[in-house]
Amino acid sequence: MQANLPRxxxxxxxxxxxVFRLVGILVGLALQKHFLANFRFPLALxxxxxxxxxxxxxxxxxxxxxxxxxxxxxxxxxxxxxxxFCLDFTVMMEMNDGTPVLHELIPKxxxxxxxxxxRKQFVDAYVDYVFNTSVxxxxxxxxxxxRSSFPLNVxxxxxxxxxxxxxxxxxxxxxxxxxxxxxxxxYKPNDQTIKNFWTVFNQLPEEEKKNFLGKYSFCIINGWFGxxxxxxxxxxxxxxxMTSQEPISQLRQLSAVPGFAPxxxxxxHALNT
Length: 273
Prior knowledge:
One of its GO terms (biological process) is protein polyubiquitination. GO terms for molecular function: ubiquitin protein ligase activity. Keywords: Transferase, Ubl conjugation pathway. The protein has two domains: 3-168, Hect, E3 ligase catalytic domain (2-Layer Sandwich); 175-272, Hect, E3 ligase catalytic domain (Hect, E3 ligase catalytic fold, 2-Layer Sandwich). Helix content is 46%, strand content 9%. The protein is elongated. The model is unreliable at 5-10, 217-234 and 242-271 (pLDDT under 50). By secondary structure, it is mainly alpha-helical.
């Protein structure tokens, strides 16, 4: 019995090679120009760019159910692996026209059952197929584009986690620090309106806090919200009364607060303006 993976992974669409190359160029340019990019690539991609072999943990990140199943295969304590899991060294892939194609992970893979003594070999071959064999052409196009816009010798100084963090930005938010560094126009930190503002903000769910900060702070870059690696202390929170005549060019970076507004009104205003 062959192993089945998420069907979309294995669709072969050669006409998209130029698209992958262009995406690689965009990621490289974003890195070069210090822009945060809304490319939610898995860590495995950055490992491959740095010539680090992806592992089962990377498969778990990309396909949690599949990764968990392979981990259960490795953790199984008994000798009847072949009878319980009913696997051989094959994987089913799907062409872009929907035609299923059986791929052998090793020579004569269809005739080789997965047993206790070779299950690690099966998992390694499976992971290699997902991250290397099945995507070789598309990844080569992506990597070619990336390296054409960002110096390879600079990329190689990073670890995969570091490279991903530079492209994506820091996803850890120190909200208390943002409050402490906030500045106010015609308000004081201990004014009741400001206290109400931060009371409401601190009660917001995490995603709504990000949404608010993305709309009203200097942390928004090309429509994608993220924090630079230097942290949230480099973001500016500037609060002013709604009656202030602020330059129109700054309105995306400023948060107007209704004077003496109750908390519920501040909450509505912050999320809907």
